[in-house]
Fold this sequence. Notes:
Structural class: alpha/beta
Strand content: 15-25%
Helix content: 25-40%
Number of domains: 1
CATH superfamily: Alpha/Beta hydrolase fold, catalytic domain
Shape: flat
Amino acid sequence: MAAGLRRAIPLAGLVALSTYLPTAPQAREHLHPGANRQPVFMAHGELDPVVPFVAGEHSAEVLRGLGFPLDWRAYEMGHAVCAAEIRDLGDWLDQRFASG
């Protein structure tokens, strides 16, 4: 996610699963002009014992505040993936490929 802030040429999208933005306090100063045009799919387990849910949630708020088009999802799971998350990510990817 931190690398996505610095992209001079935006990608078709960024995927962030059960993670957080470690550079959140400096995010605005690291943001490359236009990088916030990249759509983001971000998902996190509400019961994650590895990366706390609040860290992911805060990162999502930071990205929204920077103007990123963000699709934030929360799932009742730990630090894992679940069928609903994979389905939602697949739908999100389908939208990126359809519009590209």
